[in-house]
Every structure is written in structure tokens, then in C-alpha cells.
Write a structure and sequence with these properties.
The protein has eleven helices and four strands. By secondary structure, it is an alpha+beta fold.
Length: 263
């Protein structure tokens, strides 16, 4: 099936979402999120894009981004490849990290721009991780309200704040009030991107992990080789999954799984 032609934004501004393959976590530690932020800073310093907002969740990322020197698709590919190389090396895995192509939608009005950023910043609230976006450290919200340093000018908040007021104190106050309002508009999110069905094996995998007092998020942190190998064997026995399927879902490399099954 040919790929669809990605719509072109008249303003050059897009809401972009990257998610882990099979919804797997792509950020386990603080260092992982910092590495992704470092990747954004590095790419932005070359003038490839302007970033208006971001939110890094455990298994996906939202970006509010404007094309500059290069096409959005090229920028997102370079960001994805750079972080994937880091992740696969650190967690000893191979293969794709992100779910197929990134998702994007055009942002072409001030109203859509503001509500999209509000939606992005409230992702952790929607996920019941925090009660207020200011309590979540991995979004650009606190940069907008001057509670966090805009390190290396990772985002460009002026466009957004100027819509509220040219007076910065007044603009921030209005921004906070606006961010608290309920958003009824829809944006690209995990719920509407069902490109692949949920794994029919996941319940069995979670049941096996429960016997070891582990959850799917704990897999990449597991250092005990004997326990890891036993888990691999049990998953293979109860699901009859291929090593490639196991690698995609649980994140261990295919070679690691192959070795465990042979021992």
C-alpha cells in the first residue's frame, strides 16, 4: 500500500506525535528523557526547526514544531534515528523503536495553536499522573510560566505568549488561566492511531511478569540474567511467539532472546 501524502501546513507549524512500537515504553529513566531533550536541542541549534512546545511521556512524545531549513519528515527522521541508536545500544536491543511513521496534523490558526499546546501540556493530567501540568517536569509548561529555565532556548515561547499579551507578566497569567480550561477539541493521540492491533499476547506476558513482581516497564531495568532468561522461556512456552515478536513487544534484542532459549 503506498504511503499517503502528508498534508502541508500553510503556517509550517505542526503537532507531531512519536510513539513506541507496540506502545512499548521508550523512556525508562530520567536520563532517557534528558537524552531526548538533548537531541531536540542539538537538532534545533542547526536551525532545522522552531519548537513551541513538547511533552515527553513514557511511551510517546508530543511536539509543537515549525519547519525551518528542512522538511518536517527529514527533521523527525533524524531525531528518531539519533534517539533510537542511543536507546538500542543502552538496552541491548535491535530494530525499530518508534511506531511506523510519526503522526502529524497542521496547525494553521492562533486558536488551534493555543488549544493544541494546552492539550500537549495537559497530557500528564489526562493520564492521571499529576493534577496540574506544572507538577510534570517533562513538558515545556514550566518554561512558559517561568518556573523552569529555557535551557539552550529549546522552545520559542514568544509567539504563544504574544497572543495573550505583549506584557509578559500579564501574558503568563492569561496563559495559566487558559491552560486550566477544559479542552473539547481533538488532536492526534494514541487513541486514534490504531495502526496495529494490540498484542493478543500481552495479557499472558503481564501474568508471567506478575509472578516475578514485575511489570512491563521493569523489563529493560532487569539485570539478573537468570531471571531474565527464565522469563523469556516462559513467555515463549505460553505464547509460542517468534523471537522477533518477543523482541518488538518486550524490548530485548532478538539475539538476547535466542541465547536465552538455547540455554
Amino acid at each position: 500500500m503506498p504511503r499517503y501524502l502528508r498534508p502541508k501546513s500553510a503556517t509550517g507549524i505542526y503537532h507531531v506525535m512519536l510513539r513506541g512500537i507496540n506502545r512499548m515504553n521508550i523512556f525508562f529513566y530520567k536520563e532517557d528523557k534528558l537524552k531526548f531533550l538533548d537531541t531536540l536541542i542539538r537538532m534545533k541549534s542547526n536551525g532545522e526547526y522552531i519548537l513551541y512546545g513538547y511533552c515527553i511521556m513514557d511511551n510517546h512524545v508530543h511536539l509543537l514544531i515549525k519547519e525551518e531549513k528542512e522538511l518536517l519528515s527529514q527533521t523527525m527522521k533524524r531525531i528518531g534515528v539519533s534517539y533510537s541508536l542511543y536507546y538500542n545500544k543502552k538496552y541491548e536491543r535491535v530494530g525499530h523503536l518508534f511506531q511506523n511513521r510519526f503522526r502529524s496534523e497542521c496547525i494553521e490558526t492562533d486558536g488551534r495553536l493555543l488549544t493544541c499546546l494546552r492539550y500537549i501540556h495537559n497530557n500528564p493530567v489526562k493520564a492521571h499522573m499529576v493534577k496540574n501540568p506544572s507538577a510534570y517536569p517533562w513538558s515545556s509548561y514550566n518554561i512558559y510560566i517561568n518556573k523552569m529555565e529555557n535551557k539552550y532556548n529549546i522552545i520559542s515561547p514568544e509567539l504563544i505568549l504574544d497572543i495573550f499579551s505583549e506584557n509578559r507578566i500579564e501574558a503568563i497569567k492569561k496563559f495559566i488561566d487558559f491552560s486550566r480550561q477544559k479542552c473539547n477539541r481533538t488532536f492526534v493521540d494514541l487513541e486514534e492511531v490504531e495502526e496495529e492491533p494490540k498484542s493478543s499476547y500481552m495479557k499472558k506476558i503481564l501474568d508471567i511478569l506478575k509472578d516475578y513482581d514485575l511489570d512491563i516497564e521493569d523489563i529493560a531495568k532487569l539485570k539478573d540474567r537468570n531471571i531474565r532468561n527464565q522469563i523469556i522461556k516462559e513467555i515463549h512456552q505460553h505464547t509460542n511467539m517468534s523471537t522477533r515478536e518477543m523482541s518488538n513487544i518486550i524490548g530485548w534484542s532478538k539475539s538476547t532472546i535466542d541465547r536465552a532459549l538455547k540455554e
